[in-house]
Amino acid sequence: MEFIQVEDMSHVYYPGQENEHAALKHINLRIKQGEFIAVLGTNGSGKSTLAKHFNALLLPTSGHCYIDGLDTLNTEELWQIRQQVGMVFQNPDNQIIAAVVEDDVAFGPENLGVPPKEIRQRVTESLQAVRMERYRKFAPHLLSGGQKQRIAIAGALAMHTKCLVFDEPTAMLDPIGRTEVLATVKRLHEEAGITIVYITHFMEEAAAADRVLVMDHGEIVEDDTPAKIFIKVDEMKRRGLDVPLAAEVAWRLRRNGIHLPQDILTNEDLVVALCR
Amino acid sequence: MPIEIENVTYTYMPLTPFERTALRNVSLTIEEGSFTAIAGHTGSGKSTLVQHLNGLLHPTTGRVMVDGADLAAKGKAAKNARCCVGMVFQYPEHQLFEETVAADIAFGPKNMELAEDEIDKRVRDAMEFVDLDYEKYHSVSPFQLSGGQMRRVAIAGVVALKPKYLVLDEPTAGLDPQGRERLLKKIVQLHKKEKVTIVFVSHNMDDIARVADQVVFMNQGEMILKDIPQRAFFEEEKLQAAGLSAPQLVKLLKGLRANGLDVETAAFTVEKGVENILAALRRKRNAD
Amino acid sequence: MLTDITIGQYFPGASLLHRLDPRTKIILLFLFIIDIFVFDTPLSYGLLSLFTVSLIYFSQVPMRMMIKSIKPLWWILLFTFLINLCSVSGEAFAHIWIFALTWEGLRQAVFICLRLILLILLSSLLTFTTSPLALTDALENLMGPFKRLGMPAHELAMMMTIALRFVPTLIEETDKIMKAQKSRGSDFSSGSLLHRVKSLIPILVPLFISAFRRADELAMAMEARCYRGGVGRTQMKALRITTIDYVAYGASLLFACTLVGLKVIGI
Description:
The structure holds 3 protein chains of 3 kinds.
Chain A: E1 4-13, E2 21-31, E3 36-40, H1 47-53, E4 62-67, E5 70-71, H2 78-84, E6 85-88, H3 101-112, H4 116-129, H5 145-157, E7 163-167, H6 175-192, E8 195-199, H7 203-206, E9 211-216, E10 219-224, H8 226-229, H9 233-238, H10 245-255, H11 267-274
Parallel strand pairs in A: 3-8, 3-9, 6-7, 7-8
Antiparallel strand pairs in A: 1-2, 1-4, 4-5, 9-10
Helix pairs in contact in A: 3-4, 3-5, 4-5, 5-6
Chain B: E1 3-12, E2 20-30, E3 35-39, H1 46-51, E4 61-66, E5 69-70, H2 76-83, E6 85-88, H3 101-111, H4 116-129, H5 134-137, H6 147-159, E7 165-169, H7 177-192, E8 197-201, H8 205-211, E9 214-219, E10 222-227, H9 229-232, H10 236-241, H11 248-258, H12 270-287
Parallel strand pairs in B: 3-8, 3-9, 6-7, 7-8
Antiparallel strand pairs in B: 1-2, 1-4, 4-5, 9-10
Chain C: H1 16-19, H2 22-38, H3 42-59, H4 63-70, H5 74-87, E1 92-96, E2 99-102, H6 103-129, H7 132-147, H8 153-183, H9 193-198, H10 201-224, H11 243-265
Antiparallel strand pairs in C: 1-2
Helix pairs in contact in C: 2-6, 2-11, 3-6, 4-6, 5-6, 7-8, 8-10
């Protein structure tokens, strides 16, 4: 069984009521340990709902979601699941609980009942992993958005989480903050082998992933490598999405009879292809 | 007449340990009918600057003149001047409070003490402008709408004031690509058709490049550059100092140029960029 | 402006006062409050004031911050002063309209105001030198014995922690909403009382909605990090009484005894 395995999973909000809404429709999905997956989709396509199933914040209304072989419907294993899958949400202000950085990072391990001495060690390691050890004693409201998101990541790492699920972590950040967060995510994926599920509206960020899922009206409509997804420019725009700029320029150049490789995602790719 | 910002300095919480100078001696003229973009990272002072434009903040030293009236002055002239500058804050949907969409949009016009039928007309116009069907949505609670729709209601609430100048602080933040594109088009339409002077705060340089005719870079409370986009995005050092980067397209074209393709780098739309690359490739082929 | 409020703010530092166990600080604050109310001779007030000023000095909190914490209560102080000045009977030194100002009144007015000021200064000193989290931990710990009587000490402490953490966020939010509504022509500062109360609706409704949205998101973030109440929870910073705490207790007791001594000999 894969690290995350989703079988015929559906989620219906307010079942049986007037405003009943099927947010996820019969999803099947397998994510291997150590993968970096980006999830794209317009607002209301079901991305966040899907992400919240990965650490049992939401439970399937039908079907199953297995994390490391544990069924999220089995409430006895709830804490073990949440320990393995950390979440980072969009609004950095609404996920920091304590008034000092190190206390916030310690919150997870404290909940797990880790002995104080080990908590200290874990806090130090986690803050080092996101390069924030200098801000240990700071009050979170004095930090920038990107720094706050890195604190949230450290909070999950301190629980020795194997997988991080990001729900539009950069939507409220400026370009510096966005670069900061994405660099941290990439590093954790490459160096610590952490499984990443990354929801975003920024196509350039999605291009950094190994695999991209595209969601539309509660279904996974595409599941492929970034190169194969972003070559379908027309289709992506029709779904209300976009492609990285270099991919679009390459697509337009191809239509004008210029021969270019099929896997152009970044400016560098295009420069290499055109200036060989 | 323009908005004139003259040697404005602003200090938060003066005489406390938290004292912080958010603006340092900023001077800037926003001409009537222009489309000015203000860029800078968080804490650069751009939000503080725009809050001076309708008198929400008054300069610690210096002054802000709108149509010849000093905003900090008391009296009717200053009040009228403040009223002709509309302000759309970041995440404006967080300021909705009325029971229905129409009532929320009417809040501003009501405060202006307009006649009933004028208010009604403005609400209808504003809703039409943001693509919300009046019949379908006017009696719906704004809190039942999607995030993107709520944002449009909030913007309609400011548009209904019929401001002569409109300030938008990060209006597209958090929207999906489709929503971002649609809103940007609306703002351009407001500028072109309704002749509204726009002040557009953003850190999305690609958006700025497409719409603005004047670009201002802020860094640590200082205005470090004011120029037309054709020049502004090529000021490497100043961009870097402000923690900004050139639009993706400009970066791409510069990259091509640096690697030997003789391409014209001043292009702010994808179409133009592609055109430039094709022209350069043709020149290269002819030369070979 | 709203963001100018300093009450309840933590002023990070490493002074002697910062290093004291928060429980010690709470207990000693109570002791001093008792001191202030029990000993009412000029000499003991002098000693108490001297003591407070030296504590402020040791805390390394700037005097300006301390003065700012009194500022919001300025009107109450003035009012108390005037009431006492005019209402105590005795030997009058001046007459204003129907009021007789007496020496006894002046004396009492000064003392009562001094009492209030000392109270505010000492409690501000507690919040300035203790992080909110340490404060709630200490309260939870001190309330511990009542847990057996069914008091939800952990839950209360957690609620306080979160409330304190969100004070700056909500102040910022209020400021922003007020500005947004002002930009739409709202006027909060003129008109009749009814009009002013009504003009608060456009601020309060969005503020409540935002607070609920934040609460919802925060609850989710806490659950995602395995929060399930106080049972089985450990703490990184376990509270510990150290030598400086004993010294502080000793010094404070000695100080209290001196005051008692002075009272007994009647100075």
